[in-house]
Design brief:
The protein is α/β, with parallel strands linked by helices and 272 residues long. It has helices at residues 3-6, 23-48, 54-71, 103-110, 122-127, 135-141, 173-181, 187-197, 228-238, 249-262; strands at 91-96, 116-120, 143-146, 163-171, 202-206, 213-216, 221-224, 243-246. A six-stranded parallel beta sheet has the order 3-2-1-4-5-8, with helices on both faces. A two-stranded antiparallel sheet has the order 6-7. The protein starts with a helix and ends in a 10-residue tail after the last helix. The model is unreliable at 1-40 and 62-80 (pLDDT under 50).
Amino acid sequence: MSPRQATTDSASGRDDTRAGTHPAGNLKRLRKPLASLRRLRLANQLSSTHPRNGAHRCAILEHTTELLHTDAHDDLLPTGGTAGTPERRSRFAWAFTGSGHYLEECMALAQRLPNLDLFLSAAAEEVLPMYDFGLSELKDRCRVFRDKTTSSVPVGMLYDDVYHTVIVAPATSNTVAKCALGISDTLPTNIFAQAGKLEIPGIVLACDTKPVVITKAPREWVELKPRNIDLENVERLRRVDFCRVVESPDELEALLDARLAELALTWNTSSS
């Protein structure tokens, strides 16, 4: 069998070696006329530029070189989209992790926010019932997205300009470390990372921020002593772009109050 015969679709009899039968080939052919027009326009500018205007000629030549390089890598260019339009964003995204520290206070704040969606890590889904928060009850009050996909599919809504603010609260030391180091392998860490890349403000209530932390476990109060690395990761997180770190529900409420004012929104009068 010849190489040309090997590329023939046996089911349809079409020969895929013909120009334009592959979608990528069609896309490239559509882009090439546009690229040619851009180069022609620059060439006309170059020819009409006075020889003495060396700086302007150099600028045009540099831009032409850049276009030639870009056209050679058209497959790497984005195809466009609507992400990045703040005016279109209308909802809060609140991510819960596997922490029980300040969990009740955070849930109370979350239920007071307008236009709220919840994002639960797998650990959060295990921990919430321990504090008497049932999944079905949460679904009655707002939309709930669970960490059931490897690629964190719900995060894609950020690209559709759905969310104007992302909150991760309470955040375990594990989540804080991942967010600080740019690791995004859970639903909360993924939505936090992608929000930052879209310049969407993120707020994180870190749990381990003091040398001694008194926290409410499901059955009793517990004294914990965060390690140096836990405290260092909180400081690293403070330096992450588009992120604000808070240490208590009161700080979180104050920051959310300011955010609501920026958006010309108000708290819900009832959490029911």
